[in-house]
SDR family oxidoreductase
Amino acid sequence: MTGQRVALVTGAAQGIGYGVAQRLGALGHHVALFDRDAALLTQAEQALRGEGLDVSALEGDVASDASAKEAIALVEKRFGRLDILINNAGISPSHGGYSQLVEDVPLEEWDRVLAVNLTGTFYMCRHALPLMKARKWGRIVNFSSQGGRMRSLLSGAHYAATKAGLIGFTRVLAGQVGGHGITANCIAPGRIDTEQSRSFGDTDTYLKQLPVGRFGEAADIGDCQDFRVWAGG
């Protein structure tokens, strides 16, 4: 992959999304930062521009098909293309740091977690794919979690269901788009040191179970994502 590409990162105002956007910007690509938190989004845009990176902010909610469509349309209008889509946006209600019993999960919370974590990725992909297919090149990276691969004592059933669903979704997507010069990959991190993960509490007990003795950092994910974006040329 050579030259500047155009990337869009969801949930880019903080945490993993911010780290990924920072890494893509450092590689010389333009990065559209998509997030629903206007204040944090502005701070992220200013901070990354302060590092000399080529970024722009897009306020919106991945859980809205109309918002996802508008974000992709704005990128197309400005650049005429979208090369890289990073679906990172996600939520995981903490409830004191422990997984809720299934029967205790409020219906509205279940619906919101599915809408953001799983359906939002579907919305973003369905609107981005026509642009990528037209250019016969694209890279899609969807963020799952270890919570989608094994039982988690911290995350609820709704979070686990969405993250497992993303793995299956990405497998099907990869098979459908490969012939168009597009790759689709999934990254499933363990616990990363973000504001969201710190809300789960009892970090000392969790840290004792980790051979390296520390949580992952957003920069670690950026390095992994580099490979996924570069894979296949």
